[in-house]
């Protein structure tokens, strides 16, 4: 028979079991918590740094210089110091004009002129005979080549010229045959030599008359047997205007159309008489045109005494740029009585930056503010004593805009 258990002993045993079970559970729930220095090192990151290492005092991580930057991305390269970068559209919109450095440091004179076709590059094609316009083959703006037909005229006079040439040629042929026959008979002793000499003279006269008739027909447009004459252009170029219409009547000498070659245009200036002795062929001019500024070379200078008071006509050709259309107004700066080797720039091209005189020189990186030493001033030009070699292209118009842009960029870098 079992003895009853001691209640006190049973309670002690149950309490011990509960304590052991709770401790075991606590150990299992906290098995991931480090209990030693060795275990604590397990929670360090893969680089061997503990969590929070490198953080500031407030626990925030320091900002990364490349945070938010796409892989491989680089910041936009800044313009070199003293250089202003402008796109082609910005240059056009701002009116910044790039010109070559001028030559000469003497007194300057501004002269006016126009773009005109050179001698031999234009023609006023006129009708050679009086007649009726049968066809017009061109219109204003048409491109034509030399000897291309512009219009066809039917003329009774032209038919007469053609008939006379044909008749004179036939008479010359008959006279030549008579002379050949008499020459053969003289060798046989049948005809006197005097008759042969007479037939020879008649043959020469008939041939001369035939040549004159052919020349007259050619001068009147070489008409065909029906009297049709082709009015042709003597030069290649562009038709300026047409002054005849089909069915109309044109008189001999009346202009049918104007033709000019735009590739052979030149610059023609009217200058004061004093410049006739100061300007010579080969001198360089800085020309301002509606299309921009460019350099030109003087090809000829002549005094025009037909004008009241006298004038000087200066002709020039561009060195690089293409000319605007014929009739465009232009102007040029002539520097006389100066050293041909000295350099000059427009007064507006020289700007003051940080107390120094500079000009903005065109470079592959942009427009670089280049310090220069200025000399004498003549009209709207300034002599450059030092700082340029003469081969540069500089900003000659609205240079103050680049100065303002340069100052703006320096102000932004100052913050």
TrEMBL record:
Pfam families: BSH_RND (PF25917), CzcB_C (PF25975)
Listed SUPFAM superfamilies: HlyD-like secretion proteins
Highest rank taxon of the organism: Bacteria
Keyword Mitochondrion: no
Gene3D superfamilies, per database record: 2.40.30.170, 2.40.420.20, 2.40.50.100, Helix hairpin bin (1.10.287.470)
Keyword Transport attributed: yes
Record domain CzcB-like C-terminal circularly permuted SH3-like: where: 344-403
Region (Disordered): 28-81
Residues spanning the signal sequence: 1-26
Compositional bias per record (Basic and acidic residues), positions renumbered to this chain: 35-68
InterPro entries registered for this protein in UniProt: CzcB_C, MdtA-like_BSH, MFP_Cation_Efflux, RND_pump_MFP
Span of domain Multidrug resistance protein MdtA-like barrel-sandwich hybrid: 123-254
Keywords: Signal, Transport
Family: Belongs to the membrane fusion protein (MFP) (TC 8.A.1) family.
Protein name: Efflux RND transporter periplasmic adaptor subunit
Organism encoding this protein: Stenotrophomonas aracearum
